[in-house]
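Propose amino acids for all 417 sites.
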């Protein structure tokens, strides 16, 4: 089995950095998310260092994993942040990041969220429509500030990915059309309380081939030139996130450093401040979800491994039919099996793997659901009144709980009988 990232077997036992995962399962219980500090930092620095010399800011997309410890770690490394809600702004500021390194994306920002972000003095908004530009202008006028804004454009390049995470075609809800962008820019430039600084795009997520991202960059550069020729200054170019990671052992992850170098070459002589918004490619492979086998059962010709993690903890398989490798915490000599790995939730869609060849795990054995650092805990719910699992951060030979397991009391907090 090819292992990626910070997870390795030593003497048949799975480790994260220098910590035995079984020790974390014993101390924190299961199910439980575990993240590697070194892996997150390494991926962030791969982007950042490849762009050294080019004016840039790597704005980590908070929605991928918004734990305070992860945000504080990245803030300390000099990251900026891409947020899509007021709640994410709160999290970022609470983690100690400066507002001036925050960009605010999203197609449905409310007046309250815009006001909050302006009052805190964020770097800029990625505005997605003329209506939003006018609303930001009006709120900025009321607060007596100038709002820095980039216009989000839909470069209309096809991106090979799951349809739910493709965002860069004309028929998607995100951004304004390239052809209409110069006209919208001209009108927005006349709004007195906006400082129109640049262009932004984000074409989709989980792109294993960076080519569409480079194609989008070319479209955006051409658009920046067009707008400059009309006499306006375009200072920033935000190319969004989207670089994918290998979820399958036989796939290869694209290299963030190589991708960043390719972008840097495209922008070498353009006099633009570059913003990238990677999320998944920074945190996905840094995390696993630990789970314990509860039961083995067989119905007809099908073999089931029933585990204590479920779709409420990790919804990606149920929502996107996504694949996560499953690693036993202790390797055994027992021959592998082909089975469905399912959780306790009362839904047929509650599975973590289907018809999968995997270790012959028996009740009590521990498994790691791989590549679970991104879009995993953040999408966890309390469905079936299951308390959400804890999150653990590993640093070298130490580990600590960075979010406690929820209790039954947490389940009813705020409810009135
Ligand atoms: C989700 C999102 C990102 C991050 O995408 P990844 O695929 O996780 O890199 C970046 N920018 C915007 C606007 C997003 O919506």
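Proposal:
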């Amino acid at each position: 089995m090819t292992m990626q990232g910070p997870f390795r077997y030593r003497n048949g036992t799975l480790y994260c950095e220098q910590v035995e995962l079984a020790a974390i399962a014993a101390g924190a219980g299961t199910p439980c998310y575990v993240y590697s500090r070194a892996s997150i930092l390494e991926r962030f620095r791969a982007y950042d260092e490849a762009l050294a010399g080019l004016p840039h800011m790597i704005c980590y997309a908070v929605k991928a994993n918004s734990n305070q410890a992860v945000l504080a770690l990245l803030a300390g490394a000099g990251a900026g942040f891409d947020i899509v809600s007021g709640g994410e702004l709160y999290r970022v500021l609470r983690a100690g990041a400066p507002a001036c390194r925050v960009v605010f994306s999203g197609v449905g920002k409310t007046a309250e969220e815009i006001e909050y972000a302006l009052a805190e003095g964020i770097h800029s908004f990625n505005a997605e429509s003329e209506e939003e530009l006018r609303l930001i202008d009006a709120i900025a006028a009321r607060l007596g500030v100038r709002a820095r804004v980039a216009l989000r454009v839909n470069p209309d390049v096809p991106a090979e990915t799951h349809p739910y995470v493709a965002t860069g075609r004309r028929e998607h809800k995100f951004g304004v059309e390239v052809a209409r962008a110069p006209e919208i820019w001209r009108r927005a430039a006349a709004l007195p309380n906006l400082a129109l600084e640049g262009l932004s795009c984000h074409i989709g997520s989980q792109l294993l081939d960076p080519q569409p991202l480079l194609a989008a960059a070319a479209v955006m550069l051409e658009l920046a030139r067009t707008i400059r020729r009309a006499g306006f200054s375009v200072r920033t170019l935000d190319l969004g996130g989207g670089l994918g990671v290998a979820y399958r052992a036989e796939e290869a992850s694209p290299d963030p450093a190589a991708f960043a170098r390719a972008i840097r070459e495209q922008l070498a002589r353009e006099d633009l401040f570059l913003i990238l918004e990677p999320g998944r490619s920074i945190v996905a492979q840094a995390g696993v979800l630990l789970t314990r086998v509860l039961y083995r059962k067989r119905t007809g010709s099908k073999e089931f491994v029933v585990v204590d993690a479920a779709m409420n903890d990790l919804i990606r398989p149920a929502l996107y039919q996504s694949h996560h490798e499953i690693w036993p915490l202790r390797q055994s000599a027992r021959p592998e099996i082909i089975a469905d790995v399912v959780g306790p939730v009362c839904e047929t869609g509650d599975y973590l793997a289907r018809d999968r060849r995997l270790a012959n795990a028996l009740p009590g054995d521990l498994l790691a659901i791989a590549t679970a650092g991104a879009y995993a805990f953040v999408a966890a719910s309390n469905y079936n009144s299951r308390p959400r699992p804890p999150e653990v951060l590993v640093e070298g030979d130490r580990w600590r709980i960075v979010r406690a397991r929820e209790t039954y009391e947490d389940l009813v907090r705020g409810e009135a009988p």
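The chain has two domains: 7-36+285-412, 37-282. The pocket of pyridoxal-5'-phosphate is lined by residues 61, 63-64, 82, 84, 105, 202, 205, 240-243, 277-281 (CB under 6 Å).
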